[in-house]
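Dear colleague,

Thank you for sharing your sequence with our group. We've completed the structure prediction you requested, and as agreed, I am returning the results in plain text so they can be pasted directly into your records. Please verify that the sequence below matches your submission; if there's any discrepancy, let me know and we will rerun it promptly.
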Amino acid sequence: MIAELHGVVAQQREESMVVLVDGTGLGLDVVAPARALAEPGTSVHLVTSLRMGTDGAFLAGFETAEELRVFEALLGVNGVGPRTAVRVLSTHPARRIFEALDQEDPKPFRAVTGIGAKTANRIILELRGKLVPEDRAPGQAPADAAAQEALDALLGLGYSRAEATVALNQTVGGDLPVEARIAAALRDLGRGGRQPGGAR
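Please find the predicted structure tokens below.
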């Protein structure tokens, strides 16, 4: 498996590049920010994902591990293939994708070539609360006792751990008492249309 590579850009293409590594030219689909900074002759260091499909091998390259994590999560959604997942990250940075998921906003996904309304809504449904920034990953333990108590309260109300954790991470910081954290988290959950038990 090719997990990362370090080489010199040999060719630039519309959505890909060829990187020369120890005398071998490897073709990769690369997200737009990395392509924009990598002119032929430039040294690049990319984290990669190699996928095998019916039409052969597909090698994708990313500047950061976070981009790779988003790419792999998108591949878990029915109807999103590797080229489409790369286009999502070429159209929007990872942070914008997290925001769209939090806000249940399918428009950024529908702006990507190859993604229609049905697939955009499926991405929201399947990844909201699961695909979040590393600093507030689902299931991550709260950093203080007040946050833990608030989490326990939301779980007791019937919210999932992922939903409760994401909502509470909007309130972490300062010296908010438990009641204030719970109230703020419930407001966040209410904006997302979430009800205990996953109902809407």
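Summary note from our side: The CA atoms of residues 87 and 113 lie 7 Å apart.

Kind regards,
the structure core
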